[in-house]
Write a structure and sequence with these properties.
Largest sheet: none
Helix content: 55-70%
Number of strands: 0
Radius of gyration: 21 Å
Strand content: under 5%
Number of domains: 4
CATH architecture of the largest domain: Orthogonal Bundle
Shape: elongated
Number of helices: 20
CATH class of the largest domain: Mainly Alpha
Oligomer: single chain
C-alpha cells in the first residue's frame, strides 16, 4: 500500500477503499427495517444497516425512505438517537462533497479555528475536488468558502490556506525550486513566500523531488527545517503540507493515533471509500499494531469509535 507503488490515485472506484457497495441491496427492505428500528429506538439495527452500505446506497435509502414513509430519515434519526452516535450516523448520510464542506464549516465555527483540520482537507484533496467542495459549501451555507477562510485566518497562514484552496499545477524546474526553498531558510527570519508559492503549485512527483533534493542539500528532513525556522500557524501549516506531499497516508495515520473521536471519525468517514487501505497499512507500519485492533482494544467503551471501525472495516478484507 506504499503510495510509490501506485502510479496514480485516479484508479477504479473503491480500489483502495474498505467500504464497497452491499451486494444484496434492496432499499425497500432496508427502509422497512429502519422504520421499525426508529420506532423502537433500536440503535443496533440502524448501525448494522447504515454502516454496511456504500454512500451511494445510503443516498438511495434516504430517498426511498421519504418516498415510502413521507418522512425525513434525518429527522427520524435525530428523534431516535442522541449524542455522538447520532452525529456519526447523520454524517454517514451526507454525500461526500457535503461531508467535506461540513467538516470545513465545523473547523471554522465557534471560538477559535481548527487549523489542522483545515490543512488536512486542503492538503489531501485535489484542486478539482476542492472546487467542487467550495461549490457545495456555498450551496449549503450560502457563504463563499474563500471569504470564510480569509476571515478565520491571517498572515502567511492565510496565504497558504487560500493558495491551497485554489491550487493549480504550474511547470517548474526542480533545481531552481530547491534553491529557492534553501535560500528562504538562510536569512535571520525564514521567508514563507517561496514555500507557499512552490508547494501549492506543482504536481506531487515534482514536489517530492524538490523536497528530497532539499533534504540532501541541507542534511535534515524538510519537516525538521520547517519546525526549526518557522513559528505559529504557518509552521503548523507547512509541516502538514510537507508531510502530505511526502506521504499523505502516514500523515493521516499519525492523526488517527491521537484516538480523538472527532478526528478518527472525520478521517475514516472521509476516506473509507477512497484510500483507507493505504492509511491502515501506514498505521500498522507506524505503530506495529493494526488499526482495527487499536480501535477495538482502545475504545471498547466508546460506541462511536466501535461503530466507526465497524463501518470502515465492513469489507471483510482482514484486520491489517
Amino acid at each position: 500500500m506504499d503510495p510509490d507503488y501506485f502510479k496514480s490515485y485516479e484508479m477504479c472506484w473503491g480500489t483502495l477503499g474498505t467500504v464497497r457497495p452491499f451486494s444484496n441491496f434492496h432499499p425497500d427492505r432496508d427502509v422497512a427495517e429502519i422504520q421499525e428500528a426508529l420506532e423502537k429506538k433500536d440503535a443496533v439495527t440502524l448501525v448494522r444497516i447504515l454502516t454496511n452500505r456504500s454512500n451511494d446506497q445510503r443516498q438511495v435509502i434516504t430517498s426511498t425512505f421519504e418516498e415510502i414513509t413521507h418522512k425525513d430519515l434525518v429527522g427520524g434519526l435525530k428523534k431516535a438517537l442522541s449524542g455522538d452516535l447520532e452525529v456519526l450516523l447523520l454524517e454517514l448520510l451526507m454525500p461526500p462533497l457535503q461531508y467535506e464542506a461540513h467538516r470545513l464549516q465545523q473547523a471554522m465555527s465557534g471560538l477559535g479555528t481548527d487549523e489542522e483540520t483545515l490543512m488536512e482537507i486542503l492538503c489531501t484533496r485535489s484542486g478539482k475536488q476542492l472546487q467542487e467542495i467550495s461549490a457545495t459549501y456555498k450551496q449549503l451555507y450560502k457563504k463563499d468558502l474563500e471569504k470564510e477562510m480569509k476571515g478565520e485566518t491571517s498572515g502567511d497562514f492565510a496565504k497558504l490556506v487560500l493558495a491551497l484552496l485554489n491550487k493549480e499545477n504550474v511547470a517548474g524546474v526542480v533545481q531552481r525550486d530547491i534553491e529557492s526553498l534553501s535560500a528562504s531558510l538562510n536569512g535571520k527570519k525564514a521567508d514563507a513566500g517561496p514555500w507557499i508559492d512552490i508547494l501549492t503549485s506543482r504536481d506531487s512527483d515534482h514536489l517530492n523531488k524538490v523536497l528530497m533534493g532539499l533534504e540532501l542539500e541541507s542534511g535534515q528532513m524538510a519537516v525538521e527545517a520547517v519546525e526549526k525556522r518557522f513559528s505559529g500557524d504557518i509552521r503548523l501549516g507547512l509541516k502538514v503540507l510537507v508531510q502530505c506531499i511526502q506521504n499523505p497516508d502516514v500523515y493521516l495515520a499519525k492523526r488517527i493515533t491521537t484516538m480523538k473521536t472527532s478526528m478518527v471519525q472525520g478521517i475514516m468517514v472521509s476516506h473509507a471509500e477512497d484510500d483507507l487501505l493505504c492509511i491502515r497499512a501506514a498505521y500498522i507500519k507506524l505503530t506495529g499494531t493494526s488499526l482495527y485492533t487499536a480501535l477495538q482494544v482502545g475504545h471498547t467503551h466508546n460506541i462511536v469509535i466501535n461503530t466507526t471501525y465497524t463501518y470502515c472495516f465492513n469489507s471483510s478484507r482482514g484486520k491489517a
